[in-house]
Amino acid sequence: MSKIAIIGGTGLTSLKGLEITGREIMQTPYGEPSGPLVHGVLAGKEVSFLPRHGAGHTIPPHKINYRANIWALKNAGMEYVLAVNAVGGIRNDMLAGELVLPDQIIDYTVSRTNTFFEEGLKQVVHIDFTYPFCEDLRQKIIRSAEDESIQLISGGTYAATQGPRLETAAEVDRLEKDGCDLIGMTCMPEAALAREQELCYASICVVANKAAGRGDEALTMEKIEENLNGGMLRARQLLQAVIPRLG
Ligand code: HPA
Asked: What is the tally of structural domains in the chain?
């Protein structure tokens, strides 16, 4: 059974190159995942794909059933989760199309269900989240990018915002003062839930735009999606380079 999952974000609602072998609708105690798991073969290995926003890109970040998604992946036998997340870049080198492998998160989301450990507990559970991403997986991604000469910015603090609106310019200034380098709406609570389920989770971020107030252009969905195309192509190349190194 496949042990490798890819969660696709904006710009990656289907996985080109995945030779599909089946689809599985998972029932979970937390309700419905974003869609069926798409099982297949990529880079010679069994891989399962889940588009976070649904196959038609209809589920906004704050409405994603993160618990159902992570529970489904865990109970389908996954060990590794390669998450792909579209982001806005705060740091000057984080330009549209760049790939970034963050190593830290600050969570600014509100009112999202963010834990599996809340009811029927024998004891309260606090997971260690000092380093929110699986370092083993991060290192494999870094080595794959080096070997394949895929440009990747390694390290950075991901600001997880509530959305679905984009930020104000002042909010971006505050996030920068807090030490954030990039902004997205989907890495939390996904990363924390993955840790609660003891999944090895890392996020490959694709910069879609300069953060609000930092570029000359108005931020539109059309522009964001257009900018993502080139980055997603390289994200796919990176995924294909990493997958053979897992398991
Ligand atoms: N902010 C938050 N999330 C995003 C952005 C952004 O600028 N771009 C893509 N996802």
From this structure: 1
Pocket test for ligand 1, best of 166, 187, 229 (most atoms within 8 A of CB): 166
Q: pTM of the prediction?
A: 0.97
Q: Which domain does 47 fall in, by range?
A: 4-245
The mean pLDDT of 184-210, rounded to a whole number, is 98
Tokens 């991901």 appear where? 158
Question: At residue 227, does pLDDT exceed 80?
Answer: yes
Confidence bin at 14 (pLDDT 50/70/90): confident
Give how far Cα 70 sits from Cα of 7, 136, 192, 215, Å: 10, 19, 10, 35
Residue 34: Cβ-neighbour burial (10 angstroms; 0-12, 13-18, 19+)? buried
Ligand 1 atom 9 nearest Cα: 87
Residues having CB closer than 6 A to ligand 1 are 86-88, 161, 166-167, 183-185, 208-209, 211, 224
Give the CATH number of the domain where residue 33 resides: 3.40.50.1580
